[in-house]
Amino acid sequence: MASSSSSKTFVAPPLFKAFVYAFHLGLLKSFAYIGSTLAARKTKFPPTITKKLHPSLGEARIFFPPNYTSTGKSRSDPLPTLFSIHGGGFCMGQPANDDHINARLAANCGVLVIALPYPLAPGNSYPAPLYALVSQMRRALQKTGTTEDLPIDTSRIGVIGFSAGGNLALTIQQLLDDAEAVPEIKATIAICPPVSFGLTVPELLERRTPAARAKGDDFLAPWVPRMEWGYVPAGTPLEDPKLSPKFAALNSLSEWIFVVGAECDVLCAEAGAMVAKWIGEEEEYGENGREEMSGRDGKIRWVLAKGQKHSYDHDIPPVLANETPEQLKERKRVDEEIWKKIEACCGDPDYQDELSNVVLWDREKFNNAPIDKIRKDFKRELLIPDMGDDEYSSGDDFETETRKYDLRCQKEAELAEELGNDALAGEVNAWYCLLIDDEVFQSILNAPEPAEGMKMTYGEHYVKIITIYERSLRNDHWPGWGRIDFRLLWWLRDHDEIEQWAPVPDPQREGVYELPVIDGNL
């Protein structure tokens, strides 16, 4: 190990060991980069927009909540904003790794989520990532009120970080105190953060709870000294609060602090001890750990994810390969705690009320329902005239078709008078969105096909199509949410792939369109 905690400064390992660390990190970074890049290209949770906020880094990925559009057509009010910082041991990773989390945070909490990149170690060691993050936050705020406007509510800003990103989230406020034009961070959420440096691997393993030790070694443990070597320059004081938030004064941090630890994580005990110290319990985290701790009238909170490993909220094979039903239930419980904390400290109190106009949710209606029944049930709700027996038919003669056309125009005029012309203007009303969970979605997929007479061959008039987390070519689409437009027909470019879509210019035909899925898990 590179150092002992009593040495007070970080001591570089011997040259040969440093070479081995560099070699191991290089291999890990290469595999991680390839995997992350491929995953990002196939993401089911694309950002609403991307923006370059730093000249030498990649683009920030920005997620809007479903009741807001990036063009400001739905609302003009500023949004509570959450800056998201990815993990990866300070040495690897990219913002796209957290798309599945950030998309759901935006959808469930009604916040604008801005996922920031930062320069990676060992080429960019402490404190370079911190300054790069501050620079991007400042630039994002400077764009407010310009042609590149981001609707940021500067009175409600939070930061969330995962793993190494949790460390950066906890320490960045101390730099922001000295940064011009950057307001105070109101809330910090840190998931599985490293909060101190210099402990040996045996010390880290021994500090876990007896229940965690009984499960064997942690997959992260052997990588801790390698990542510390990459991030911490030799001679750096280990109790520097900008490096180790465990030693930060509470008055230098945000008003609201929420820390999540994974019980089987070697980093958990140090994070728990940090929170215990902040709430005045003199590091009495205890040998068996603490499942929950609260202080400062609930504004400081610790939650232990029981039975979970490091990065349990990410799709990492060593973590989720053998996830039990109990662990899945625990993961959902902690997810809900995170959402509630964000809503309490910087969320929009009216967001859930507004969603009552957005979400069309009727479990009984959708469960095991045929596609044609769903289409029929939503026709009136989607402001399309109900023609009854006078719907267009391919067998209509000219006189019948003319009569039906005149009748449709009359019904459209009646709807326009009642609901406004915008309701009939080529796009479905932006407030009509559908939220269903995975169980209901699967039941729809397994439901009977539409009536035989409604089926058409590929490339013609009607095809049964349901998209999952895909941005359509005609409508803005938020991950987990989607507009349903029954006046557009979509056709599948490849019957075996659901990612490829193109519109068919035949708006008078009916079809089944965006039925996205969100199951409420981070």
Features:
13% strand; 3 domains; single chain; 9-stranded mixed beta sheet; disordered N terminus; disordered C terminus; two-stranded parallel sheet; alpha/beta; 522 residues; 33% helix; Rossmann fold
Describe the structure.
With 522 residues, this protein is an alpha/beta fold. The protein folds into three domains: 5-348, Rossmann fold, CATH 3.40.50.1820; 356-382 and 429-522, no CATH class; 385-427, no CATH class. It has 15 helices and 13 strands. The protein has helices spanning 15-41, 99-109, 128-142, 164-176, 201-206, 210-214, 224-231, 268-278, 317-320, 325-346, 351-355, 363-366, 371-379, 398-419, 438-445, and strands at 49-51, 60-63, 79-85, 112-116, 152-162, 187-191, 256-262, 292-295, 300-305, 359-360, 433-434, 489-494, 497-504. It has a nine-stranded mixed beta sheet, with helices on both faces. A two-stranded parallel ribbon has the order 10-11. Strands 12-13 form a two-stranded antiparallel sheet. Helix 2 (99-109) links the parallel strand 3 and strand 4. The model is unreliable at 1-6, 70-74, 355-364, 375-382, 422-441 and 447-522 (pLDDT under 50).
SSE layout and pairings?
Elements lengths: L14 H27 L7 E3 L8 E4 L15 E7 L13 H11 L2 E5 L11 H15 L9 E11 L1 H13 L10 E5 L9 H6 L3 H5 L9 H8 L24 E7 L5 H11 L13 E4 L4 E6 L11 H4 L4 H22 L4 H5 L3 E2 L2 H4 L4 H9 L18 H22 L13 E2 L3 H8 L43 E6 L2 E8 L18
Parallel strand pairs: 3-4, 3-5, 5-6, 6-7, 7-9, 10-11
Antiparallel strand pairs: 1-2, 2-4, 8-9, 12-13
Helix pairs in contact: 1-7, 3-4
Pfam families: Abhydrolase_3 (PF07859)
InterPro entries: AB_hydrolase_3, AB_hydrolase_fold, Carboxylest/Gibb_receptor
GO molecular function: hydrolase activity
